[in-house]
Specification:
The chain is of the alpha/beta class and 313 residues long. Helix content is 37%, strand content 14%. Mean pLDDT is 94; it is low at 1-12. It binds fructose -6-phosphate.
Length: 313
C-alpha cells in the first residue's frame, strides 16, 4: 500500500483550532453578529472603543446584513466602533464597482451610525512609492486605536487570509502584495474579464492579524471544506496561511455544516477515538475504505481495516 504522508500528518493532529459548526451560513452569521454586538455594548458601558478587523467578499455578507438589522431594529449603535479592513485591490478607485471601499459602504457603513472618521479601508489609489509609508501608518493607526479587539477574516480556497497568499511570512505586516492567479480566478466573477482583475493588493500581514485579541474566521459552503480541514487539522505552515492561526491563543472558526464536511470528526469519526457504531456509520466506513483503497468491499482484508483505524470490535 502506498503511504500518503500528507494524510498521515492530517489525521495525526486533528483539530488544532476551536471550531463552531452551525447548520447554515445565516445561522452562523447571526451567532457571530450577536457576539460582536455584545462586545460593542460591553465596551460602550465601559466607555471604550470597540476595534474590529473586517473582511469583504461573499462570506461576511450575512454578518453585515445582521449587524445592520441589529442597528435598525434593536438600537445597536456603532458610535464607539473603529474598524480596519483587511485588504483592498491595487490599483483601484474607491468607487469602482469591485472596490472593497465601495463594498463596505454598500454592505455596512452607509446603513449604520459609525462616524466616517472611524472606519479605515486601505487606499488603492496611492502611487507605489508612497505605499510603504502608507502601510506603516496603517499599522500605527491600528495600534493607536488600542489594537484589534476582534479580527473577522474569511478564507480563500488556497488558505489565504486577508490577501496573505501561501508563502506569506508569519512576521508579515501590512504591505503591497502580488495576488495568486488562483485568487484572481476566484474573484474574476466580479470583473468584466480576467485581464481586468488587479494583479496586486494591499493587505494586513499575518502578524497584524495574529496581534488581534481574538480571531473569528468564517467559512461557508462545501467549496471551503478541504481548506478548512487543512487549516484546522494540518500542520501550521505558511503554505496554508490560515493554518498559522493555530499559533493564536484565542481563535475560532465559525463554519456551516457544508464547510465542516471534511473534518475528521465528520468524515472518519472512528479515528477520533470516540464513536457510536450505528449501521449507517458502519456502511459509511466500509464503503469509504473500499473507495479509498480502490477495492471491492468483499476484497477488503483484516490488514486493510487495521491499517485504516477500523479494527474496533
Ligand atoms: C477579502 C479577504 C479575502 C476573502 C477570501 C474569501 O477581504 O480578505 O481573504 O475573505 O478570498 O472570499 P469569499 O468570501 O468571497 O469566498
Amino acid at each position: 500500500m502506498t503511504i500518503n504522508h500528507q494524510e498521515i500528518e492530517l489525521i495525526d493532529s486533528f483539530e488544532q483550532i476551536a471550531v463552531e459548526i452551525h447548520p447554515t451560513a445565516k445561522e452562523g452569521s447571526k451567532a457571530v453578529a450577536a457576539e460582536i454586538a455584545a462586545l460593542i455594548r460591553q465596551k460602550q458601558t465601559a466607555g471604550e472603543p470597540c476595534v474590529l478587523g473586517l473582511a469583504t467578499g461573499s462570506t461576511p455578507k450575512y454578518l453585515y446584513a445582521e449587524l445592520v438589522r441589529l442597528h435598525k431594529e434593536e438600537g445597536l449603535s456603532f458610535k464607539n466602533v473603529v474598524t480596519f479592513n483587511l485588504d483592498e485591490y491595487y490599483p483601484i478607485e474607491p468607487d469602482a464597482l469591485q472596490s472593497y471601499n465601495r463594498f463596505m459602504k454598500e454592505q455596512l457603513f452607509n446603513h449604520i451610525d459609525i462616524p466616517e472618521s472611524q472606519y479605515h479601508i486601505p487606499d488603492g489609489t496611492l502611487p507605489k512609492e508612497k505605499m510603504k509609508a502608507y502601510c506603516e501608518e496603517y499599522e500605527r493607526k491600528i495600534e493607536a486605536a488600542g489594537g484589534l479587539d476582534v479580527q473577522i477574516p474569511g478564507i480563500g480556497n488556497n488558505g489565504h487570509i486577508g490577501f496573505n497568499e501561501p508563502g506569506s511570512s508569519i512576521n508579515s505586516h501590512t504591505r503591497l502584495i502580488t495576488l495568486d492567479n488562483s485568487t484572481r480566478l476566484a474573484n474574476a466573477y466580479d470583473f468584466p474579464n480576467m485581464s481586468q482583475v488587479p494583479r496586486l493588493a494591499i493587505t494586513m500581514g499575518i502578524s497584524t492579524i495574529l496581534k488581534a485579541k481574538k480571531v473569528i474566521l468564517l467559512a461557508w459552503g462545501s467549496h471551503k471544506a478541504k481548506i478548512v480541514r487543512r487549516s484546522v487539522e494540518g500542520h501550521s505552515s505558511d503554505q496554508v496561511p490560515a493554518s498559522l492561526l493555530q499559533q493564536h491563543p484565542n481563535t475560532k472558526f465559525v463554519i456551516d455544516e457544508q464547510a465542516a464536511h471534511d473534518l475528521t470528526r465528520n468524515k472518519e469519526p472512528w479515528l477520533t477515538g470516540d464513536c457510536e457504531w450505528t449501521p449507517a456509520l458502519i456502511r459509511k466506513a466500509v464503503t469509504g475504505l473500499a473507495l479509498k483503497l480502490n477495492k471491492a468491499i468483499l476484497m477488503l482484508t483484516d490488514k486493510d481495516y487495521n491499517e485504516n483505524g477500523l479494527n474496533d470490535w
